[in-house]
Amino acid sequence: MAAEVYRHAIGTFQSHSYANNVNHKQRLRNNFVRLVNNDSVSSNVLSSRGARYSSCSNRRSVIRSSASQTSVADPVSLSPSRTPTTDTNKKSNEAALILIRHGESLWNEKNLFTGCVDVPLSKKGIDEAIEAGKRISSIPVDVIFTSALIRAQMTAMLAMTQHRRKKVPIIIHNESEQARQWSQVFSEDTKKQSIPVIASWQLNERMYGELQGLNKQETADRYGKEQVHEWRRSYDTPPPNGESLEMCAERAVAYFRDQIEPQLLSGKNVMIAAHGNSLRSIIMYLDKLTSQEVISLELSTGIPMLYIFKEGRFIRRGSPIGPQEAGVYAYTKRLALYRQKLDEMF
């Protein structure tokens, strides 16, 4: 079933068009008015805590360049700035940040420690990625960041097959001069219908060391539940020859601050498809969580979270467990207008 949904999604990505239903559009416009009038948010002050880079694996040659060199224009987007600013203190009006933990992997399905082993999605994971795409189908995306691992990249690609803007995500290969030349797009029209995807090992899952590939229940039986729980859920205790959450946070947050935050500051709408621990690290930074608060933070596979970056602050907008899109995301004025323009276009 998942494979059929996947093939259907690819087909609709190329050819699907939305019907012109006047009553439906009128009902949506009424909802926009209600959402715009009720738009009020509380702000979380952006943390200024620094972070240091730490390696997860030997995959150090993966892309390090800024996405600002490959961003493309979107005539529908309502972002105030479409080009990077040279003034690092300048704040954009508003930008969207979407976080998605990858769908279930084949090793998740088998209850194995995965870490930095490159394992693809299961059939359930494919369905979860497609469902995640439906939830964010009316939220603008200008650039995508993923880990260097296939399960995160599959999630990003499958999610974007559901986006109403119907842009095509393209992985940017910048690891060598030959890779840059061979992957160059020469049509300006095609570039405008593309979304750059930047892959980085710094967003990888934390490296589980000698636990990788072991069955979780068998490992608990061997070492004891308390020991395995400490390896999995403590902040600063790593598994044998692996990374702690603290070590994962050092590299993930440093990359977010250096490479992703400037994109938001310039007005770009960003999606990150990554992993439970790398995303927990970033959320710890965004929500200013303590080391004790973050260890109890659980992220479901394939459920997107939305933040608004506004005037230098990150504001979480809605519950990731809402049953419908409107229940998940409390729209801002800008997002409501973006969706209205999509309705008019399609």
| Mass-distribution shape | globular
Measure the end-to-end span: 28 Å
Written as H for each helix and E for each strand, in order along the chain, the element string is HHEHHEHEHHEHHHEHHEEHH
Treating each run of at least 4 consecutive H or I residues as one helix, how many helices? 14
Average pLDDT, all residues: 79
Query: What's the Cα radius of gyration?
Result: 20 Å
What are the low-pLDDT stretches, counting only 5+ consecutive residues below 50?
A: 1-75, 77-92
Structural classification: alpha/beta
- Number of DSSP strand runs: 7
**Main sheet: strand order:** 3-4-2-5-1-6-7
Largest sheet: 7 strands, mixed
Percent strand equals: 5-15%
User: Portion of residues in helices?
Assistant: 40-55%
Tag the structure with descriptive keywords.
346 residues, disordered N terminus, single chain, 7 strands, alpha/beta, globular, seven-stranded mixed sheet
